[in-house]
Amino acid sequence: MPVAHGKGKLERARLPGAPAKGLLREAGAPEEINEGKYVYCVIKSERPLSFGLLGIGPEPSEVHTVHYKDIAAIVSNTPMVVLDPTRDNVLSHQRVNETVMQDHTVIPMSYGTVFKTDDDIMELLRSAYDAFTDVLNKMQDKFEFGLKVLWDRDEIIHEIESEDEDIRRLKGEISTQKGSTYFARMQYGRLIDAALQSKSERYVTEIFEALRNVSVASRSNKPIGDRMIMNAAFLVARSLEQAFDARVKDIGQRYDKLTFKFTGPWPPYNFVNIRLRLERAHN
User: Fold this and answer.
1) Burial of 87: CB neighbours in 10 Å, binned 0-12, 13-18, 19+
2) Which residues pair with residue 231 across a beta bridge?
3) Residue 17 per-residue DSSP state
4) Is the pTM of the predicted complex or chain greater than 0.70?
């Protein structure tokens, strides 16, 4: 639920997660049978587990485990049809991952990952056992948090104009000259763009630095739209979740001209990159 803290505008919400980067069999390929197995994530577990009627689809099915040695896939039965990424379907996918990650470290699977049988899933776990185990060990008790930072560009330009004498002078020339102001406008635009870039980079650097000692790792993604200056993911240890949360709120109070959108915890989508391909022995 969005909340505001102090001077800066800070919003924290729980949103549908982005797909992971695994490459597995996708739903929608023509199949001979009508029911398959939807895979949400992989965890460490030697004993059978059940998570209730949370499965994706119009009629929620039982979410349970399929095992190989000490790792397990979290699955539910699903029709072998294309699962459109509707809001309800994406939320169901994410809800299962959120439920499982309360007590387990998870490797999230891409939305729409479907296999024909339990045997296919066990073959996946067997063939990629070392990779899964290595990532599960590295991700043990760690979550992902998303942080997007936005600003009001016009407000920041006004601030720049008040701070920079050259920009202020050029603006005055443009507003008072009756003749051509082409060159003044060009110079003004270049100076404004450079100042915006510099100020944006300074803000982003300071925010990353402020969060460095309460996170394990971070990743910078491309900002979306003109207002966003930072689009980042942070890997945070379970033991540091409250400290990370408090630090983000503190940063939000410090930067009164920025809006912070804070989401999580999520499975470590941005920090897991397992590329898998299940070779079928029988088609």
Assistant:
1) exposed
2) 148, 221
3) P
4) yes
